[in-house]
Amino acid sequence: MMGEAIAIPHTWVLVLSAVLFSIGTLGVLLRRNGIAIFLSLEIMLNAGNLAFVAFALRFAADAGTATAALAGQLFVFFVIGIAAAEAAVGLALYIALHRLKGTIDVDRVNVLRW
């Protein structure tokens, strides 16, 4: 019984993706710390990736939709690249903001007035 794989329905994966996206949305709306907002955005991006993978698994099960499954996996790689670029630029902005204002609390920072 060690070699048997357990098949997880794609609807469960989509529910998990929706829960993660909801947690990320609440984190963006309720947090005041810039790093916490940034991490919540990353959770939202990963929830989108999980949805792409779930749909790719669903389309890979059908006979004629193998190209759609590969397109879903390709979108995942693009989103990972965008998340990496966002991480680099976002953290650089937070470092510059902390050096300038001394805080990354989004309520206490007004960047339009230098």
Would you kindly provide a written description of the structure presented here, covering whatever features stand out?
It is a single chain. With 114 residues, the protein is an all-alpha fold. It has a single domain, classed as Helix Hairpins, CATH 1.10.287. 75% of the residues lie in helices and 0% in strands. It is built from three helices and no strands. The protein has helices at 10-30, 34-61, 66-101. Helix 2 packs antiparallel against helix 3. The chain is elongated. 9% of the residues are buried. The mean pLDDT is 84.
Strand content: under 5%
Please count the helical segments: 3
| Major sheet size, sense and barrel closure | none
The overall average pLDDT, rounded, is 84
Give the second-level CATH assignment, the architecture: Orthogonal Bundle
What's the CATH class, please? Answer: Mainly Alpha
Over all CA atoms, what is the radius of gyration? 19 Å
Write the layout of secondary structure elements.
Blueprint: H1 10-30, H2 34-61, H3 66-101
Write a brief caption for the model.
This protein is an all-alpha fold and 114 residues long. 75% of the residues lie in helices and 0% in strands. Helix 1 packs antiparallel against helix 2 and helix 2 runs antiparallel to helix 3.
Characteristic terms for this protein:
114 residues; mainly alpha; Helix Hairpins; 75% helix
